[in-house]
Amino acid sequence: MEAVNIKNLTKKYKDVTAVDKLNLCIHKGELFSLLGVNGAGKTTTVKMLTCLVKPTDGNAELLGHSIVTDCAGVKSIIGISPQETAVAPNLNVRENLILMCGVHGFSREKSRFKTDELINLFGFKEISGKKAGKLSGGWQRRLSIAMALISEPEILFLDEPTLGLDVIARSELWDIIRSLKGKITIILTTHYMEEAESLSDRVGIMKDGVLLELGTPDELKKLAGTDKFEDAFISIVRGNIK
Amino acid sequence: MKFAAFSGRVTKEILRDPVTLSFGLGFPLVLLFLLSAIQANIPISLFEIKSLTPGITVFGLSFVTLFSAMLIAKDRESALTERLFTTPLTAADFIFGYAVPILPLSLAQCIICYIAAAALGLKLTVTVIWAFVFIISVAVFFISLGLLFGSMLTVKQVGGICGALVTNLTAWLSGVWFDLNLVGGAFKKIAYLLPFVHAVELERAVLNGDYGNIMPHIWWVAGYAAATLIAAVFMFLRRMKK
Q1: Is the pLDDT of residue B241 over 80?
Q2: Strand A57-62 to A210-215 pairing
Q3: Are strands A57-62 and A2-13 parallel, antiparallel or unpaired?
Q4: Which of A169, B87, B89, B121 is least enclosed, having the fewest CB within 10 Å?
């Protein structure tokens, strides 16, 4: 079954076309990565799919909810961890999670249950009383993802979740993302090739707002005639694939 | 529930920011004590506590503009707003969620000023209660101004516009520090076209039980408060739709 069905999705800013007639289907439970160089249109695509930006043309349906006509429906089934850290700095870890429960309208009991569950899942026990603004970059990213998950989303958007993290913090976040695979649909944007290759079921490569290629990491390597995923990406983006 | 969760978070952010508390509550008090000390040592009536206190309470509210604008601008820059825009929170939840917690803070600032003024010799009568009631319209104006600037400007710009411009306009064009008749001319005319001097004269009239002089100042203040609130809502909605 399809979780996301994108049809001719287009976003224009004056004379710049950020996303150009994007057509794409993402399956339920799939971890789908959008790859591309800066300005490829990945973040604009995510922003349109999460109802943060209105498309100029086209549409997308997330589990049947249109991003053009049913933003409330879309918002009820998604979670997002934006590119920049999106936590309330003067609230502690637990309070940040409770805040997200509250804005989703959870009862007090459910809020307590979900908060405890995510504190255990993400290993926040020792730091649950610490202000989010005082946490390291890696812990803030973890918290950001936990905040996106607390509403039990059916589709999770992770916009460059490991950007700027050290190797250990990145590896720990990968483990968390892997643990979610199959349970919910995940749409990930990243600049890190090894991240996309290691985590994704399928990868879409974008350039100048256009989807150039789509396939599993192995299919894309085969298409480019190389064993290295990074080389395959470079070949595709440079247009060296016939 | 959703609104309560968001406004609760705003309250915590404000109360846990030492700069907000020290400036918002401390600075007006310092001015009150300083100017009262000056008054005690000069032969003319320049900063009498009866007319100084209403002026200081209005001037203190200009910091509320700074804090509310700073909070919203910081949220926007940290991507927390982006995250919250993808939740079921409505535009009304956001606008009232920001504005409502700041109103009690403004009143607390006003009450503290009057307690300090009482220690400096202000006779507390029932008119003080009315001064608290009427300052609500002034507070709504300054809070709305904060919402407006916070929705439009970056954190850096808020520092300049609200930290310097609004506080200085409130200081110089409100008649707190000097009688505007002493300057007269275009300066006085401009001052009376803006709400600051009307806010101070409204509060002075109320505190002194001179209820006949509430008009036309209340209309100026209420008119500016309503217009600024509408502009703030419009700007916030524009940001949301963007």
Answers
A1: no
A2: unpaired
A3: antiparallel
A4: B121
pLDDT of A172: 84
Tens digits of per-residue pLDDT, A165-204?
A: 788 888 888 888 898 888 899 999 998 899 999 999 999 9
Q: Is residue B144 within 8 Å of residue B228, measured between CB atoms?
A: yes
Cis peptide leading into B18, omega within 30 of 0?
A: no
Alpha-carbon distance of A26 to A170, in angstroms, equals: 25
Q: What is d(CA A211, CA A26) in angstroms, rounded to the nearest whole number?
A: 14
Mark yes or no for CB contact B79/A84 under 8 Å: yes
Look-up of token digits 């978070």: B9
| CA nearest neighbour of A83 among A146, A177, A160, A173 | A160
The tokens describing B25, both together, are 């509550």
Cα B85 to Cα A53: distance, rounded to the nearest angstrom:
11
pLDDT over 70 at A74, yes or no: yes
Residues 120-149, chain A, touching B (beta carbon < 8 A):
131, 144, 147-148
Higher pLDDT, A165 or B88: B88
Q: What's residue B191's pLDDT? A: 92
Contacts of B16 in chain A (CB under 8 A): 90, 131
pTM higher than 0.95: no
Cβ separation of A84 and B78 shorter than 8 Å? yes
- The CA distance from B23 to A183, in Å, is 49
- Cβ of A95 within 8 Å of Cβ of B9? The answer is yes
- Predicted confidence at residue A242, as pLDDT, reads 62
Report H helices in A104-186. Answer: 108-121, 137-149, 167-180
Contact B86 A52 (CB under 8 A): yes
